[in-house]
Amino acid sequence: MAELTTLARPYAKAAFEAAVEAGSLGDWSESLATVAAVVSEPAVRSALTSPSLTGEKQAQLVTELCGDEIIGQVKNFIAILAENKRIPLMPEIVTLFETLKANQEMKVDVNVISAFPLSDALQEKLAASLKAKLQREVVLHSETDKSLIGGAVIRAGDLVIDGSVRGKLAKLSESMKG
Amino acid sequence: MIAGAQAEIEQEVNRAKEQLRKQVAGIAIAGAEKILEASIDEATHAELAEKLAASL
To answer: B27 touching A, CB under 8 A?
Structure first.
């Protein structure tokens, strides 16, 4: 079993990277699940292990059985798998793909806009505190905006933490003007 | 008649006061902004960012 996982890993990784690049993780995930289900059917499984079937024919068989349920990229993926006689690995590939997807979704992109460039040490500190606060892996992107005067604004999804001097002044002004 | 006029005057005075207060606040903020802009350098900024990181 461990060996199957090892064999499946590079394929799962490649599929995952292609899916991220295309921005269609969800579609990939659904398509791969369909393919895995098709391949797991005993009749299909025995047909696929028959030595008389060429890689090309295997790919054709699986793609036809899946019909319109799968996206074009996944069809290409099947063709590559078939070429290398790795279609039976499909269930393992799906498992690994889903793990990668879950890890990716645990990550959150954080934008830090600061008045002056942040030192690496400070960026690390911010990332560490954000990680603790959000309970997720953090990918930090930093920008500078002189008009903030000092401090920084942190944006993580719909969470905005305004620690800038400009923000504090705006708050002060609001309370003074009532 | 007199009471009505007095009330109107009072209202006018209050409105003027309110306007003046807002203007003073605006000037104070603008002044604070200028001073802060001039006085905040990279070191102060780093301190602020550090505080922000600690307060999360």
So the answer is: no
Residue from the list A122, A149, A172 with its beta carbon closest to the beta carbon of B53: A122
Closest-approach residue (CA) in chain A for B48: A151
* Alpha-carbon span A89 to A94, nearest angstrom: 9
- Looking at this predicted complex, what is its ipTM? 0.74
Q: For residue B37, give Cα distances in angstroms to A71, A115, A146, B44.
A: 55, 10, 9, 11
Domain ranges of chain A: 2-104, 105-177
From chain B, pick out residues whose CB is under 8 angstroms from the CB of A169. 29, 32-33, 36
Kindly report, residue by residue over A101-135, the tens digit of the pLDDT: 988 888 888 999 998 888 888 889 889 898 888 88
Sequence-distant (≥ 6) Cβ neighbours of residue A22 within 8 angstroms: A28, A73
- A contacts of B50 (beta carbons < 8 Å): 122, 125
3-state secondary structure of A55: helix
CATH T-level topology, domain A2-104 = Peroxidase; domain 1 (1.10.520)
Tokens of A175: 């309370």
